[in-house]
Amino acid sequence: MENTFELSVTVNGTSYQKVIDPRTLLSDFLRNDLELTGTHVGCEHGVCGACTIILNGDPVRSCLLFAPQVHGQEIITVEGLGTVDDMHPLQDAFREAHALQCGFCTPGFLTTLVPWLEENPNPTEEEIREAVSGNLCRCTGYQHIIDAVKLAAEKMN
Amino acid sequence: MTYKVIGKRVKRVEDPRLLTGGALFVGDVNLPNMLHAAFFRSDYAHAKIKSIDTSLAKEIPGVVGVYTAEDMGEAWEPGPPLVSPPPTLEGVVFNSRRQVPLVKDKVKHAGEIIAVVVAESRYIAEDAVEEIYVDYEPLPAVTNLEKCLEPGHPLVHDDLDSNLAAYLVQNKGDYEAAKKEADLVLKRKFKLDRGAAVAMENRGIVVDWDQKNQHLMIWDTTQSPIPIRNGMAARLGLRTHQVRVVAPFVGGGFGPKIMMFYAEEMVLPWLTMKLNRPVKWIEDRKENFYATTQEREQVQEVEMALSKEGRILGIKQKIIHDTGAFDPYGLTTPLNTQSHSMGGYDVQNYNSELFVVFTNKIIVTPVRGAGRPQGIYVVERMLDIASKELKLDPRDVRRLNFIPKDAFPYNHEIIDQAFVELVLDSGNYLPAYEKALEKIEYDKFVQEEQPRLRAEGKYVGIGVVPFIETTGVGPYEGARVAVEPSGKISAATGVGTQGQSHMTSFAQIIAEELGVEVEDVSLVSGDTAEIHWGTGTFASRGAVVAGNAVLAAASDVRKKVLKLASKILETPEDELELEGGLVRVADIPEKSISLGELAVLANPFRGAVEPGTEPGLESTKYFGPAYGATAFGVHGMILEVDPETMMIKIHKYIAVEDCGTMLNPLVVEGQIHGGVSMGIGNAYYEKLHYDENAQLLNASLADYLIPTSAEMPHIEVYHENTPAPNNKLGTKGVGEAGAIPVPAAFAQALENALPDFNLEITETPLSPNRLYELLYKSEE
């Protein structure tokens, strides 16, 4: 590699130092260099939201960032929200409400909603619909996702 | 039948891994020494290739090879025909032309692959693609369905004398005779267009040729792993046991992922065997619009003969259907259109002439609905228009024409997509229709709310559309169920999963039969190493065909369990029950043995067995229906149109569905919601815009608009149950139902909302722009 960048980043609480091609997209860095394949790539043009991760507390599209842009920063991906034996209440609610079918868009919904629910603990249906209107899902028609968010809000309060 | 587990809203066993980012999708496969492929795709839709210069691309560091059709030599071969025309129909003209791995002489659609680059990373491979130079001789593109059969028109396939891909006529009764008795003969021309599936996961394939083991491993986002395995082995001169295809978790299919032997699927195995290294290709979203199949245009001329009471005496139809540049998938989609052009109505006379044409656009294969929406659209529109002309209530016209409930099985006599006569196995349409009208509060809306809202200057309308859906077609599927020494159950079936919840709903069937917990059943689908025979997940058939195979296998295992337990416990079989993973004596619960212990006993390590014994507690069974199961439903919607912006808001949406026995109501509702969202997209937001050069102008999610949560209404789902008589579960498919009636419901509701404009909608999709044109530019 001619051009390289020494990237330092904390992901899900772990610090990583990697030498990378500077034009590597953050989504590809997470998936290929760190093998955190829970973050999915749906469009690479910032529309579908499947690649959403939490950067310093805010949900952002990882396909629209180059990895060097997160140098020295903190990221949480879907893998950092919960484990199979200890799921986040939102993940539990998704399961209970059947809010996922193929599951491909799901990580992006979770990383969008977790920070949002912290700021909006008691949302209405309309507020939830607007909050996730930047995340595309082709399987569910969104209805069970809305139900899951309402359920999670109840659980979390 | 009262079930304990089947029919319950069981949480999905597949969810924890999917929710925590631990589920394997093809894009997640990462192998040591792996190479990455990128494709040079034609920008032109129709062009001769004069020369290809890959010399600069080959020099880029990290590029392992750049290949064209010439490099493939004898390995170059078009894909096999997947679905031949029905042998059961006479006089069919069918010109089979299939897609190729790499273009040789002439490009026939934009996005066709001219060269492939293999490199150490996808980034480098794409750099190299930019350095490939092709000299084209552009040719006029074939795009117009109505003109493309005219003599002298440019040809997509030069070895044919026209752009005709197929021609057939289907006939029932005598339309011309029926027409003579008619009080009203209506004629209309319809322009229909569908769209892309837009699964959130693009396609992908990872291949790994193990030279030492002489074994080819393929991960593929396919809905059809077993036929892919069979076809790959045949193409590569391998035995079937040398090829394994795994479709792991797949992020949505909706039809196009069942198209088999996509160019990429033909190129990558050749590459891995040539280079002796694993090769990976994941489609990006732009490629998805060019390289993944779509469903598209039909032009239909429909004539309907009616009595003055609104009774349908006959339907006559001419369909021109666009198949795109190739026709590997045969006539499935337009046959479905024909099968649904009579709806759920008692139509004695039907004549339908079908022309399938080649164009320079991407290949057409089924997308959720698969031709059915187009059939339902024209019959429902014709009935709406007839109701107006005859001055009848459109509801009464439906009621009058429904096939009565004691007329089933009802044979429509035409051939359907499964090559058998279209027999509607069961149905009870009137109660579903009345339920829909009741739930949408039709009378109240039309008599009170609508006039009140109109007086406020609001344009609100109602649409209620009944429909049928053929489901559960053959040929067959299989399932293997086995009790493991641990007492847990392992199972396998060939219908892969793209989100349909097979791992749970099939586990429910097994749990019901064997008295175990759903979580204790581990079902693998989509792995050719686990089950050898099957066709795939398509046409709303998983629950019916694979589900019944699962039931048959589980029942057989239950028989084996009881037989062995009866011996061990020295108790007659009819005094035994299966519960909690145990077999116990009904009145003496302490006298029991676990399934795991039985499984060990059934597979002795030493000693002799009785002649004819099969080891273990395992069974593989197949189910193949003589004909499909016909599901049905009714959708209703109330929508409001803003007369300035043409934007719509759906105030109320109800879906009455009847898929017979439900395996899991959560899953059924999810399928309906998802289908409706696709239907709403197809009705008002989604359109693939091709220009006169067959260039797709909106190949991105920013320009091809699929509904977001903001566009979707809350959908109330109501269930009816008319069990399917021809399978033990009594179940019917429901995967496509949501998408089928929506465009017709939209048309009805929009006309109802805008009475001052004398609107007659004979096209789909609409859009805010198009609705404006229809309302205000009335010189059409």
Short structural summary:
The complex is a heterodimer of chains A (157) and B (780). In chain A, 33% of the residues lie in helices and 16% in strands.
Roughly how many Å is the radius of gyration of chain B? Answer: 28 Å
What is the percent of helical residues of chain B? 25-40%
Q: Strand fraction band of chain B?
A: 25-35%
Strand order of the main beta sheet of chain A, please? 2-1-5-3-4
Average of per-residue pLDDT values of chain A: 97
CATH topology of the largest domain in chain A: Ubiquitin-like (UB roll)
Largest sheet of chain B: 7 strands, mixed
**CATH class categorisation of the domain at 474-623 in chain B:** Alpha Beta
Order of strands across the biggest sheet of chain B?
Answer: 3-6-1-13-10-11-12
| Computed Rg of chain A | 16 Å
| Separate helix tally of chain A | 5
* Assembly form of the protein: heterodimer
Distance between the termini of chain A: 51 Å
Structure notes:
The complex is a heterodimer of chains A (157) and B (780). By secondary structure, chain A is an alpha+beta fold. Chain A is built from five helices and five strands. Chain A has helices spanning 26-33, 89-97, 106-119, 125-131, 143-156, and strands at residues 5-11, 14-20, 52-55, 58-61, 74-76. Chain A has a five-stranded mixed beta sheet, sandwiched between helices. In chain A, helix 2 crosses helix 5. The longest helix of chain A has 14 residues, at 106-119. Chain A is elongated, with a radius of gyration of 16 Å. Chain A starts with a strand and ends with a helix. Chain B has a domain at 474-623: 2-Layer Sandwich (Aldehyde Oxidoreductase, domain 4). Chain B is built from 19 helices and 30 strands. In chain B, helix 14 runs parallel beside helix 15 and helix 17 (665-685) packs across helix 18. The longest helix of chain B is centred in the last third of the chain and has 28 residues, at 542-569. Chains A and B meet through helix 2, helix 3, helix 4 and helix 5 of A and helix 1 and helix 17 of B.
